[in-house]
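Hi,

I'm pasting everything inline rather than attaching a file, because the server keeps stripping attachments. The sequence lines come first, and each chain or strand is labelled.
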Amino acid sequence: MFAWHVSGQLAAYADRQLDAQDVSRTERHLHGCGRCRRELEQVRFGIAALDDLPLAKAPDAIWLSLEAALDRPQPVLPGARVRTWRLAWVAAALFIAGAVGVLWRLNREPQVQWDVTRLEGSPRIGSRTLTAAGHVGPGDSIETDGTSRLHVKVGTIGSVDVAAETRIRIVNTSPSEHRLALSSGEIYAKISAPPRIFFVDTPAGTAIDLGCEYRLQCDRAGSGLLRVFTGWVSYERNGRESLVPAGAVCVTRAPHGPGTPYFENASAAFTSALGEFDFGTRSPEALGTLIQESRVRDTLTLWHLLSRVSASDRPKVFERMAALSPPPAGVTRDRILALEAPALEQWKQELAWTW
Amino acid sequence: LIRGKEIPLFKPISLVAFAGLVMSHVQAEEFSIQVGSPVATQSYSAKSAAFAFRTRGCADPSSVEAGGTAEGLVGGKRQTIRLAKVSSPSAGTFAVFREWPNEGVWVANITARCAGATAGALVAVGPNGFLRESSKFFARPATGAEVEALLKTLAARPGDIGGATK
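And the predicted assembly:
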């Protein structure tokens, strides 16, 4: 599985041009391949950027001058040759820009409205008070006070319950990307869609749905908690990824962003040491406690620590993990210590059976 | 090469190959069932499953046949439900979806077969998922007595099921 990637399929996948079998295969690979997920992000970013470009019409004067220049007999003079080439370049550039603009316009994804329903109190959508039900679209903000809550139907892929004292903004409602920004407060998301369709931007990072149900809390500074009930969530910030499976949590602290995920039934000493490692001084004692206190299920945390500890500490983490749950055939100590992505991924997939 | 010279060379190679084949079968992993969280299937379509399991030690995982029942003890009365909502996200991997009520204590009785080998598992399940520590694994289908014994154990410790892993 790790000998190949799905780079060549990503544009078609993002454009929903793959058949069901290829979609399934691509998603299976994306689930376990950080490199391809990042490439998919870039593809989607490109599509979104294209989507936002306005279709500009070239001024008539340019076309008239181009036609006049082309009709004019051209004496073979060094200066005139340069001008002709310049005009040709301008014409080519305009043609390409126009064609690309037309294509973007044709491929533009529709931005749909999401249904919202008041659950309690008087939530606000922008400056309006939601009395019963309504709709929201890109750019709309939702705010609840201490006594209000509401339910958002996220297109056809799921729902988000917005808790009291929460501020969110709808960013994108296109079919290939559903994105909202959580400024502060708490949401409960239940999504049934292929991975990386639903995104929540927070001050701590971006929570990316990999097919899941989760509760996300965050204050304005970026401190909070992600708790996952089913599936996986990837909490990402500045290229660092915390993969949080069902049953696990991930603490965020300003200004660090998402910490290392862990299972809540880990020992108190373990969770305390993890807080020290993620947001404190990263003392050797903290790492020692994490290694000593870890159970088989805590390999979730140790697996993340492999790429977060120093190279000199990495062997200690590896040895503990190998003692708790030996790596599968082909995944060697050297490959793990070198942080080879396919080896890490292969081990993670095996470890997931113990999480 | 003279044909007569090939034969003596061929025989030792055949013997070594045969011995290797025999050894590989002797050392092959025993056919067994491993239970885990639905996230282990790496399939978002299995995320809402109660639990997942995979078989190990089968040379051709796509040939694995698996099925089972949910065995319950509700208000002192035994119930059996055939598990119909079982998906297979990949060869040899299965996701079991909840088909049993919240009331009482329940055990999923799973049997898998591969090329004449059979493996069984009793997976303790509850409203919040499955209980890894209470689950039992066998190199054969679980017996009725084993099902009853596990149900009785779970009924005596209802708090365990409430905190099941998921």
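The mean pLDDT of chain B is 82.

If the labels don't parse on your end, tell me and I'll reformat.
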